[in-house]
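4.2 Preliminary Data

To establish feasibility before requesting continued support, the project team ran the inverse folding procedure on a target of 258 residues. The structure was first converted into the token representation described in Section 3, and no sequence information of any kind was made available to the design step. The complete token record follows.
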């Protein structure tokens, strides 16, 4: 399918989706959110794709929801249209691992989109923020909930109430991002991480994603039970037999996703 606001490339089992509205610093409008949702569903369903990268440009991952598109909307239009909620739900349905590769601004909805991905690799130029307060609103697609879970109440309150930006170093220290690399190496690093993930059994990577996500949805006891069931169920797979046999035979495992 031809897209106008994103670029989708599939290479060596890794799909890279690049947000592509350079004139608006990749601001998230309804078209981009619709295209992103559709592209994610397509690559998630593809037999070839084993890991997904979402990225933007050197200057901006995404500078937030499109303020021009939003500014004149009424409550009724926002409530009935709900294009942000629809996109957020679509991203939440992706079962394969999704890496956000963030350079430059990840603000408002851009920060929220990065946090919807499974983990964030940031360039040293990355700037994260929830500046919606400056526009007379608040975060609307998970910022107050996810940022608080990821960096704690104090820093999350600080970000949401003052609207200040957090640089990559602070974001790594706070646990928002998993690694920070020099800007020029960002995509290499993201592709290397994706390639590492793509080597594994997709059954195991999907189970790992599902189990880690339970940690944010439920009690410790329920989460531990969910993890245990997923762990035990992997013993029904050929890939578990292959992975353990390969270790014992001192060779590389050949996973077949069975
Ligand atoms: N929306 C629309 N256009 C944008 C946006 C945006 N969020 N951000 C930048 N642009 C446009 C600018 O208008 C400008 O366009 P033009 O050249 O036509 O005037 C172009 O991108 C370049 O931007 P700047 O000239 O401003 O670039 P600077 O380098 O000077 O500044 C900044 C970069 C600091 C990123 C600045 O552009 C900025 O502050 N942008 C807005 C950031 C922001 O407030 N984001 C939050 C938006 S609200 C939100 O995300 C809510 C999400 C939840 C919604 C849920 C609904 C239910």
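Position-by-position output of the design step:
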């Amino acid at each position: 399918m031809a897209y106008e606001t994103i670029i989708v490339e599939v290479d060596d089992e890794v799909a890279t989706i690049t947000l592509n509205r350079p004139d608006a610093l990749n601001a998230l409008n309804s078209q981009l959110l619709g295209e992103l949702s559709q592209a994610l569903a397509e690559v998630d369903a593809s037999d070839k794709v084993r890991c997904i990268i979402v990225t933007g440009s050197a200057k901006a991952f995404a500078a937030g929801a499109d303020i021009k598109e939003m500014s004149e909307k009424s409550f009724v239009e926002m409530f009935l249209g709900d294009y942000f909620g629809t996109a957020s739900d679509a991203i939440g349905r992706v079962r394969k691992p999704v890496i956000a590769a963030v350079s430059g601004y990840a603000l408002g909805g851009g920060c929220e989109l990065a946090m919807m991905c499974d983990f964030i690799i940031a360039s040293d130029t990355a700037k994260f923020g929830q500046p919606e307060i400056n526009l007379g609103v608040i975060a609307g697609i998970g910022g107050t909930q996810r940022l608080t879970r990821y960096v704690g109440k104090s820093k999350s309150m600080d970000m949401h109430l003052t609207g200040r930006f957090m640089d990559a170093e602070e974001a790594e220290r706070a646990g928002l991002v998993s690694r920070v690399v020099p800007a020029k190496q960002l995509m290499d690093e993201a592709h290397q991480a994706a390639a590492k993930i793509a080597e594994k059994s997709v059954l195991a990577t999907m189970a790992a994603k599902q189990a880690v996500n339970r940690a944010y949805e439920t009690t410790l006891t329920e989460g531990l039970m969910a993890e245990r069931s997923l762990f035990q169920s992997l013993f029904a797979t050929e890939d578990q037999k292959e992975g353990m046999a390969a270790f014992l035979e001192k060779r590389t495992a050949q996973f077949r996703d069975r």
